[in-house]
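Box 3.1 — From sequence to structure: Pectate lyase
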Amino acid sequence: MAMAISKKWVSLCSLLLIVLLVAGVMATVRTHDGSASRKIQTEQLQRSSNNSSMAATRLEDDGALNEHAVDDPEEIAAMVMLLGHSDSYVRDKQMQVTIAYNHFGEGLIQRMPRCRHGYFHVVNNDYTHWEMYAIGGSANPTINSQGNRYLAPTNTFAKEVTKRVDTAASQWKHWNWRSEGDLLLNGAYFTPSGAGATASYARASSLGAKSSSMIGSITSSAGVLGCHRGHQC
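Predicted structure (token representation):
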């Protein structure tokens, strides 16, 4: 297999099976490309039914996390998606991430995703389980939630989709978080904030959202690829 390496990119010139034995981490100036996610089968980055999580630290380029199924009863599943290095790492203000066409299911607790700084488009995902919250953030991230299906747990105190982490309401009320066209079930509710102006979400809008009524069909193929060694996927 040929491989071209540059300062910022590693280009794989054929299909590749990657099996990670530990959690996948994207470090400084790396991106998990959405098109690549369709070509690479991994036990971690594809969020299969095996132990899995993702921490994107200091992600300064555009990123896309799509077409995954997240179902894992193990403790590591509580981590799920951490996007941003730390509240103090202000260079992440340029980060732009799209999370689309995923199924977040049984055994997951929180952080789907948990965002710091940056701009996040959460679009056409199916949330069928969480224990604490689905989407959280700190350090003034912009979160644009469109066309998702949120099915709240039976726990009366865990119906809220959102969580502002360790931040006073006097601060987070100015953050731009919105829900548009989402389907909220079993008492689920999304707490919006910010000015609400469409222009505020320009950098958190990467693709057109489909109707939340289509979520079942949109995410029906989410999950690890059904590939076998020696055969084309």
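Summary of the box: The chain has a mean pLDDT of 77.
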